[in-house]
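chain below, 486 aa
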Amino acid sequence: MLGVNAFEWNFLQNPNDPNNAMEIYEPKMKLIQSFGGVRHYLDWGRIEDKPGKFTFNPAHSGGWNLDAIYQRCKADGIDMLACLKTCPNWLQDTYPANQRDAENVPMPYGADKAKPASYILQAKAAFQFAARYGSNSRVDKSLLKIDSSPRWTADQINQPLTGLNTVKYIECDNERDKWWKGDKAHQTAEEYAANLSAFYDGHKGTLGKDAGVKTADPNMKVVMAGLAKTDVNYVKSMIEWCRKNRGYKADGSINFCFDVINFHLYANDHLEHHDQATQGVAPEQSEAAEIAAQFALLGNQYHLPVWVTEAGYDVNAQSPQRAITIGPKTILQTQADWTIRTALLYARNGIQKLFFYMLFDDNLANPVQYASSGLVTEDLKRRPAANFILQTKNLLGAYSYRKTISQVPFVDLYQYGKKTMYVLVQPTQNGTVSNYTLALPGAKKAVVHKLNYDSEKTSDHTVDIKSGKLLIEVTETPVLVEPLPN
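prediction:
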């Protein structure tokens, strides 16, 4: 529940050696280690700069060492979701000059958006990626299309590798319901399902031996693109397309072309009060819980996990997606409160993974939404939100949500083996403080963990439990209570 969105240069680019994109820059990696997962925005053109010629280490577009990123994240226990997105320049060039856009539907100009075969080029790129970074080392190497040509004398040569087993999850593009970009970029649920069917397994193997993720690695999980519009009916229509066009498996279940349902949600005052959002709101004060519950219900019905791969708050004081000052709390402190409360809300409502947007700001000075959502700063320091994430990961990372005991304030019970942890928070955004009597039957002592805005570590103090009850102050900043074994 504590993932982050990032780019390859967030791992590799050393400000002291900007031309070296081959090695992990440790000060940046230390920040990334604060998180439990990374959603890597990987432009398709990065790995297929020229049609049918693939490079990964170094990627000829940009010189990045993708192998190093994925290997390091695996070694550090950070789940990797690669989001393969956008159209390479050579694919954009098939469109008329006035219609070229990196976010166009990923097929040649004039192709039929409703047919899986239209997406064969993207499906082939997905195959090459999954063959390299997936778990199957027995992929036929004659199917690999590695560009082994050097860019210059003594340049490192790309090697045809399989089964590196560093990436478990791949997402098929990003926000394909782009209604705001018109027909060239928008896909209906049925059109995107056709796209996914090609990407998933080459439309059940009909597009050739080198098309589709599952064709290369049956174990790699395919995540549908996060929906910009949180419409559960879009996914229902995709499911119906699968039923009609992919049929059923031997066990009687629908033959889906995705393993994970996915949506995006940025909590703000848009739906309730305004045509345009004017500010962010606390997650519990938004429609997030209701929408998550709808998606989780659908996921449970079809035994599919549900993820949220984008959520977050800006810190520019003019952004319509900004966190707000609350009493003495700064925008940065509220961003921290709301970030952790977003993770708690989604865990409470049946979501299995969450990735925050994003690691660094796009542009802190820009008041446009999402430009200042960074959790760390350009001078490589954690903002309070990243400190909260690191502290929560260290304390609660191994625990699973079990149940909610109270809703005002929220009191959630988490469990890890025989250990339990209670998380208490006010769901308000007006500075509410109250006392709550927490029942801790049988416990004689507990540790109260308070999150710190300006530290890597929580402030902890041990308290005595009298008659199985603890009176505790609850604010809009989550507090964690850990009963100690007797």
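The chain has two domains: 3-398, 404-483. The longest strand covers residues 400-407.
thats it, cya
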